[in-house]
Amino acid sequence: MTSTINHPLNRKLRMALIGGGGEGFFGRVHALAAGLDQRAELVAGAFSSDPEKSRLAAAAFGVAAPRGYGSYRELIEIEARLPPERRVDFITIATPNHTHFEIAQAALKAGFHVVCEKPLTNDLDQAHELARSVARSGTVFVLAHGYSGYPLVRQAREMIAAGELGQVHAVRVAYLQGGLWGIDPGQPASRAAWKADPAKAGPSGTLADIGTHAFHLLRFTTGLKPQAISATLARFHAARPLDDYGHVVLRCGGGELATITVSQVTHGRLNDLSLEVDGNRGSLQWRQIEPDRLVVRRHSQPVQIHERNRRTAYSDTVRAACRLPGGHPEGVLEALANVYGDGFDAMIRHASGSSADAGPVIHPTVADGVEGVYFVQLCLTSHGELGTWKPWQLPSRGRQHDQ
Ligand SMILES: NC(=O)c1ccc[n+]([C@@H]2O[C@H](COP(=O)([O-])OP(=O)(O)OC[C@H]3O[C@@H](n4cnc5c(N)ncnc54)[C@H](O)[C@@H]3O)[C@@H](O)[C@H]2O)c1
Fold it and tell me: Could you give the CA distance from residue 246 to residue 230 in angstroms, rounded to a whole number?
């Protein structure tokens, strides 16, 4: 990602990673994505809840032994005491859901910028509390909804805002996976066993895990504000005790209708995230399995296929989100790196003394995290009442979030 802002620090930002040790999945993805553009380097971490495993993982991540900490508490305490020219700038949290709140609170209290995994928390009060902590600290908080970093997702957002589809009236988001069929209910999961424990995963399974991504994609691209939600969830596989399938219908403020379908029990579907938006002048379609194509259709006209291509980019923002010439595939790492890039710009603004949100805030924030947790809670309530419509009552958000 090409940054256009001045860099008063003239150095890489220093990253600490919590999680990612051993078999840990997404921590490693964070380490790769954060470093992709040479704007940050991983210099510290608490990679596991087990101090010994954390220290072992430090070596695998190329982190010098003294900064491979035994716990996140130790990391925050010691890093906060280091002189500014050594201490980490930001802390990435890629640990099981139930730990996000306590780690993020400790990091914010110590004055660090935070990049946090979704769902923000398992509990709405905690989500609100984190939002208050971010406001108090004035630091940057990035929520890791990486799909919002795809160039053509950003283009879809811009095309919709520019009215290219006319008046939007319907949106369909689906996020389909089939991975649960790979888990034998009789056997402990080899990785992410915590996802089978509601005390750790939270009160929802698939909806919290991938439905929060789908909901953010809907909000990010269309800016539509839900007015009421009806949800029906199901559990079709015995691998986990929580929902693994669900349909959500959202009635939005201007009469628009949106649906979100989530599944982790659809054989053979591999992170099949799709977005379809209908307007009165056109419709668009994007799928993560072909992230470099955005299809736009208009009645009685040939289908338009927009490709990710720096030369023909729709706007400077979209161009800045591309690294390679068209035809060389870019994917989920680059998308997450774009979200990091937005966060880095905000961190640099912060370091130059201006407010972190003084410039354009395109990366998902703590407010998106609160919305995601509220979305899950409202869906669970609706489902518990046989799909009853529940009004969306979260207060309106600041200027950068609503289009
Ligand atoms: N944004 C995305 O697309 C995406 C994709 C996958 C996972 N996630 C999220 O990332 C988080 C982690 O998921 P995962 O699939 O990597 O899980 P995982 O079980 O594969 O990895 C969790 C890691 O956290 C470590 N850990 C656990 N408790 C810790 C603690 N107290 N201190 C330090 N390290 C600790 C474990 O050792 C492990 O390395 C979850 O919140 C999940 O929802 C997001």
Answer: 11
Task: Please give the tally of structural domains in the chain.
Answer: 2
Tokens for 222, please give them: 């269309």
| CA 47 to ligand 1 centroid distance, Å | 10
User: Can you list the pairs that 301-310 forms with residues at least 24 positions away whose Cβ atoms lie under 8 Å?
Assistant: 306/152, 306/155, 308/151, 308/152
Query: 218 and 195 in one domain?
Result: yes
pLDDT at 260 over 70: yes
| Domain span holding position 56 | 13-147
* pLDDT at residue number 401: 42
Q: Which two tokens stand for residue 169?
A: 């009236």
Q: What are phi and psi of 350, to 5 degrees?
A: -60, -45
Report which residue type is found at 222.
T
The model carries a pTM of 0.96
End-to-end CA distance of the chain, in Å? 23
pLDDT per position as a tens digit, 299-334: 999 999 999 999 999 999 999 999 999 999 999 999
Taking the C-alpha atoms of residue 331 and residue 324, their distance in angstroms, rounded to an integer, is 11
**Do 63 and 43 form a contact (C-beta atoms < 8 A)?**
yes
Report the pocket of ligand 1 as residue ranges, CB < 6 Å. 18-27, 46-49, 72, 94-97, 99, 117-118, 144, 146, 191-192, 194, 209
Report the residue count for the chain: 403
Say how far residue 196 (Cα) sits from the centre of its chain: 21
Please choose, from the candidates 229, 224, 279, 221, the residue with its C-alpha nearest in 3D space to the C-alpha of residue 251: 229
Q: Which residues pair with 274 in a beta bridge?
A: 174, 287
Strand order in the sheet with 293-297: 304-307, 293-297, 283-287, 272-279, 168-176, 257-263, 245-252, 226-234, 390-391
How far, in Å, from the CA of 18 to the mean position of ligand 1? 9
By alpha-carbon position, which residue is closest to atom 37 of ligand 1? 48
CATH number at residue 133: 3.40.50.720
- Of the listed ranges 247-256, 301-310, 353-362, the least confidently predicted one is 353-362
Based on the fold, state whether residues 138 and 173 are members of the same structural domain: no
Cβ atoms of 352 and 8 within 8 Å: the answer is: yes
Query: Residue 7 above 80 pLDDT?
Result: no
Same domain for 229 and 142, yes or no, is no
Q: Taking 80 as the threshold, does the pLDDT of residue 93 lie above it?
A: yes
